[in-house]
Structure formats: C-alpha cells, structure tokens
Specification:
Number of strands: 23
Strand content: 35-45%
Shape: elongated
Number of helices: 4
Helix content: 10-25%
C-alpha cells in the first residue's frame, strides 16, 4: 500500500529516470556534432575546363556554369557551357583580382580580393551596373536563399543582406572544437556551407547555424596540384550533383561522396612501408545527409553507468520508504505492493 508520500516518491524516481535518459540523448547528440565525418569523392564523369582559368568562384544556373577567375590583369567573369566551352567573358580592371561569385535574381555578384569591392553584373549581357563596398578581403561567396554568405580567409563567415551587403550575422567555423581558417571558395544551401580549405585537397561542410564542421571531404584523388593548381571550385547543378575543379585545372569533375574507411591493420602496415597512408573508399556511395557514423564507445559506457546509477537509486529509495513504514503495515515488497493504491 502506498500513502501520498509514497506516490510522490515514485513520481520523483520516474522523473529522475526521465532526466537520465534526456542527459544520455544530449550527450549522444553532442558527441555526434563534435566528430566530423570523413568523406572521399568518387568521380562520376568529367568535362573540359579551360586551364587558363584561375578559378576563384563557380556556380551553376539554368544549365550554364558561371565562373570568376583571378590574377591581376587576367581576372574575368565567364559563362561556360557544360562541355567546358566559354560562351562569353568579360575582363575585370587590371587592378582588380576576381574572387568568389554568387547570383541574386538576374544579377551576378563578384568579390575582389583586396579591393574591398563586390562587382554587380547583369546576367543578361554582363554589363557592370554597380558595386558594394566591404571591409577586409574577399574570398568566397554563395547564396543560401536568404543571405549572401561570405568568407575572408579567416575562420569567420559573414551573412550579408543581398540588397545592401550589410552584415546580418556571423559565425566562427570550428573543426573538432578548434577554429578552422583559410576558408576559400564557397557553395551553400539553407542548412550547410561547403568550403574549400585554401591550399589543401579538402572541402569541409559547415553547419550554417553553429559553424561546426560536420563533414571533411578528401578530394585528393582528383589530382590536386598535379592538375596545375589547388582545388578551388564547388558547384551544384540543377539535379543536386556536385562538381569540383581547381585553379588552372584542365578538367571539372562530377563527384559523389562516399564514407572514408580506414584500412585494416595489415593494409595499414603495407601502406606505411611503401607510401604515405591513404583512405580506402567504401563500395556504397551516399549523400551528405545519409551518412552517419557509430557513436563513440564512451557514449555507451556513460549510458550504462547512468542507467545503473538510476536503478540503484530507485531500489534504495523504495527500500528506505518500506523500512519507514510502521511494522504492522510492512509487507514483503512486490510489484503489486509498490504500485497499488490503498483502497
């Protein structure tokens, strides 16, 4: 039989168990957010890319590619057919170094490196119709549907009003809790930002809300500097397929992302004795949102410890309340005694 105080005790015990479960869920979530998933690229097809293009910005729009190229005296804005042929091009002023590129309505916005100027071009005829001013350097630019998202070579990414280019908010990008800088050319959607990491073969996927990197993509299999320059150019076509290229590369590649699988011990020993270790790719491809990794072992240990503690506390609590009853009311503990009301 339970008195009112005993009912309250059971409620408190249940509340404790619910709180323990919530803490475990939170710990699992934090652990998953903190560990970036390692990915590699699988080439689906490739097309010609003009190797005189020092690619600094890239995007797809209505079946055409638009590209910003750099180098003082050689910077251009280009419209390119999917087969790599340049349809039209306009040169920037000799003292302007082309950088990131994005589109807002019927206008293209092109950053410059150290000139503190974003150029506004009419999409229809590539006529220059205006500009925006900003502080600092211009590196990458993309449109997430509501804001222009801009990098400046640091770990900070700014979200800008597409109407006047004013900063509306900023995030600091982190990888495994450490700030990640040198974020270069960008591509984005409403939830994520993809960024080339300057002078590496890596692309990172960034949570637009928190700034945490949740995927690291190794694109070294595309050839890297062996193609003529560093990886720098991310675009998604109308089907959502990812295309990658680099500075002065002769090719642009359509790729799928696959989970990176660490080599076995034997494979690792063989690899280390011959060359630097590389990632082996799995046979199953996946999109970024479909790829998950197992929770770390520590999460399972914590899960077991919390559950053991919770049930131990519950058992001790019930035993103490039973002992507190007058001797003439004590009955052997059973499920029925604990949970039946006094009638």
């Amino acid at each position: 039989m339970l008195k009112a105080i005993h009912r309250k005790s059971v409620i408190l015990i249940c509340a404790f168990l619910l709180l323990s479960t919530a803490q475990i869920t939170s710990a699992e979530s934090d652990s998953q957010e903190g560990a970036a998933i390692q990915m590699v690229v699988k080439v689906i097809e490739n097309a010609t890319h003009q190797n005189d293009a020092f690619t600094q910005g890239l995007l797809w729009h209505q079946g055409m590619m638009y590209e910003s190229t750099g180098i003082y005296g050689e910077s251009t804005l280009r419209e390119v057919f999917p087969n790599g042929t340049v349809n039209r091009s306009v040169e920037l002023a000799g003292d302007q170094f082309g950088e990131g590129l994005s589109i807002v309505g019927e206008q293209l916005i092109q950053l410059t490196w150290k000139e503190n100027t974003a150029l506004i071009w009419n999409l229809s005829d590539f006529s220059l119709v205006g500009n925006f001013s900003y502080d600092g350097e211009g590196w990458g630019l993309c449109n997430n549907g509501t804001s222009l998202v801009m990098s400046d070579g640091t770990s900070q990414i700014d979200f800008r009003n597409p109407t006047d280019f004013s900063i509306t908010r900023s995030i600091n990008v982190t990888l495994d809790g450490e700030e990640l800088d040198r974020l270069n050319e960008l591509e984005c959607d409403s939830d994520h930002i993809w960024a080339n990491v300057f002078q590496t073969d890596e692309i990172v996927r960034i949570n637009s809300s928190t700034g945490a990197v949740d995927q690291v993509i190794d694109a070294s299999s595309l050839g890297g500097e062996g193609n003529g320059g560093h990886l720098n150019g991310i675009a998604f076509d109308s089907d959502g397929d990812m295309w990658l290229t680099g500075k002065n590369w002769p090719k642009i590649f359509e790729v799928e992302l696959e989970l990176a699988i660490e080599p076995s011990d034997n494979e690792q020993e063989t690899t280390e004795s011959n060359q630097p270790a590389i990632h082996e790719t799995g046979s199953q491809s996946c999109t970024g949102d479909d790829c998950e990794e197992d929770a770390p072992f520590g999460v399972y240990v914590m899960y077991g410890v919390v559950l053991f503690t919770a049930f131990s506390c519950a058992a001790i609590g019930i035993f103490k309340f039973w002992r507190a009853l007058p001797s003439n009311e004590k009955k052997p503990l059973s499920q029925g005694n604990v949970f039946d009301d006094d009638e």
